[in-house]
Amino acid sequence: MSEFPAGLALRCPEVSDHRRVLAVMDDWWAGFGGADGSRQRALLLPRLFFQHFTDTSVLAEHADGGIAAFLVGFLSSSQPGTAYVHFVGVDPGLRRRGVAAGLYQRFFTLAATRGARRVRCVTSPGNAVSLAFHTGIGFRVDPGDLTMDGVAAQRDYDGPGLHRVTFTRALPGPRG
């Protein structure tokens, strides 16, 4: 498992963390998209994730209690054996220090112990950093019905014109 930088504490998120996470997302994405971008990010991470998926999600905090990183994920109720990473964020000052990889590894372990055999996630076709990160930690790009920026993508995955690259990563099976 990746080592987390000293001073970070991990815990499951709580409902009261929802507003705090939305606030850091605006900071970490440097206000990308202005007020509309902030609304879009809030729509991607509604309060329900902090109510119903807390035992499979993780929040990393600095020693002073400030949010350092988070991963929101869950086990699929309609696709047994599948887990899904919905959203991940890392404080820009901690990027490239193994924090995201550590959060994913924690999620992989938890998902595998609960019967998942694969983890899925998505990103935008033009997000080269996300593509490199996910393939670097063992995800494979799923086949798509179009190619964008040299990568297979799913046309209209999240609605008209909202194409996405989908990933799958196998998890180890039960030990016998």
Question: Would you give an account of this structure?
Answer:
The protein has five helices and nine strands. Helices cover 29% and strands 26% of the residues. Strand 3 and strand 4 form a beta hairpin. The protein has helices spanning 17-28, 34-44, 49-52, 99-113, 128-136, and strands at 9-11, 58-61, 67-75, 82-90, 118-123, 140-141, 146-148, 151-153, 165-170. The protein is globular. The mean pLDDT is 91. The strands form two sheets. The chain has a seven-stranded mixed beta sheet with strand order 1-2-3-4-5-9-6. It has 176 residues and is α+β, with helices and mostly antiparallel strands.
What's the quick description here?
By secondary structure, the protein is an alpha+beta fold. The chain has helices spanning 17-28, 34-44, 49-52, 99-113, 128-136; strands spanning 9-11, 58-61, 67-75, 82-90, 118-123, 140-141, 146-148, 151-153, 165-170.
Layout of SSEs?
Elements: E1 9-11, H1 17-28, H2 34-44, H3 49-52, E2 58-61, E3 67-75, E4 82-90, H4 99-113, E5 118-123, H5 128-136, E6 140-141, E7 146-148, E8 151-153, E9 165-170
Large-scale geometry: globular
Report the total helices: 5
Strand-residue proportion: 25-35%
> Would you report the number of β strands?
9
Which structural class best describes the helix and strand composition?
A: alpha+beta
| Low-confidence regions | none
Q: Tell me, rounded to a whole number, the average pLDDT.
A: 91
Strand order, sheet with most strands: 1-2-3-4-5-9-6
Radius of gyration: 16 Å
The amount of helix comes to 25-40%
Sheet having the most strands: 7 strands, mixed
Report how far the terminal alpha carbons are from each other. 22 Å
Order of helices and strands: EHHHEEEHEHEEEE
